[in-house]
Structures are given as C-alpha cells and as structure tokens.
Design goal:
The chain has helices spanning 9-30, 34-59, and strands at 63-68, 71-76, 86-89, 95-99, 105-108, 117-123, 130-136, 143-145. By secondary structure, it is α+β, with helices and mostly antiparallel strands. The protein has one domain: minor pseudopilin epsh fold (3-Layer(bab) Sandwich). The strands form 2 sheets. It has a 4-stranded antiparallel beta sheet with strand order 3-2-1-5. A hairpin with a 2-residue loop joins strand 1 (63-68) and strand 2 (71-76). The chain starts with 8 loop residues before the first helix and ends with a strand.
C-alpha cells in the first residue's frame, strides 16, 4: 500500500467551511445598520448645529439650517466673505427630517436664548421605523434623544 499524499476531500471541505464562516462573520460585523447610520447622522448634525450656534454668538451672523434634497444645508442669512454655506448629505438613505417650526427651518442666532428646537429624524426601512430626535430647550445645547 502506498503512503497517502495530499489532503482528503473531507479535510479540504472542512477548511473551506471554516474560511466561509470567517468571511461571513467579518462581513456582518463590518456592515452598518440603518440604526447606526441614523445615530451617526444625528450626532454629526448635533455637532454642526452647536458649532454654528457658537459661531453665531461670536460673530453676530445668523445661521439657518434647513433640509435640502438628500441632506441639509446650514447657511448664513447675510452674505459674508468668510461664511460659506455648509451642504451635507445624510449617511442614511431614505432619512426624513422634520422640525417643530412651521417653515421647516432652524434659526441659530447670536442671542443667548433661542426658541425651543426639535428636529425629528426617521428612516422607514420596511421592518420597523427607526426614529431619533434632536432637541434643545433654547438655552442648553443640542442633544440626541430616542
């Protein structure tokens, strides 16, 4: 009888199954879920609103946030040389943003006290809608709430 050379079919299949399981687990761990993307959008928007609110208080320029296309824009109400509009696209596809103001805008002025602000962010992915809310009572900073 000759000594065995190489691998058996069973050994090769076991190795292939182990590689496939490892590849699937890496792929699933790297993918962002809609809830994660929505959370990232909310955190980014909160940081940008805070930054523009602070900039408004130091420079006196009034900034306005509004939804535009598949994202939003934060722009000054008066044309300033160094104050360019900030246009951002949402990370999440199908994200809907609504404010508590009748015109759908959030005004960030230099006054220390603003009117209460609420921005509702939601994604309807078919299974169950995912929602977050960005709020400020007008005096304190913006925060993300479920």
């Amino acid at each position: 009888m000759q000594p065995q050379r190489g691998f058996t079919l069973i050994e090769l299949l076991v190795v292939l199954v182990i590689i496939a399981i490892a590849a699937v687990s890496v792929t699933l761990s790297v993918r962002d879920t809609q809830a994660d993307l929505l959370q990232r959008d909310a955190q980014r928007l909160t940081a940008q609103l805070e930054a523009k609110r602070s900039a408004s208080r130091t420079s006196g320029v009034v900034w306005v946030w509004r939804v535009q296309g598949n994202g939003y824009v934060i722009e000054p109400t008066t044309a300033q040389k160094n104050d360019a509009p900030l246009q951002i696209t949402w990370y999440s596809t199908g994200l809907v943003a609504q404010t508590n103001s009748p015109d759908g805008r959030v005004v960030l002025g230099p006054e220390p006290l603003l009117s209460p602000i609420s921005i509702d962010l939601s994604i309807d992915s078919g299974k169950s809608p995912t929602r977050l809310q960005i709020t400020s009572d007008g005096l304190s900073g913006f925060e993300v709430r479920p």
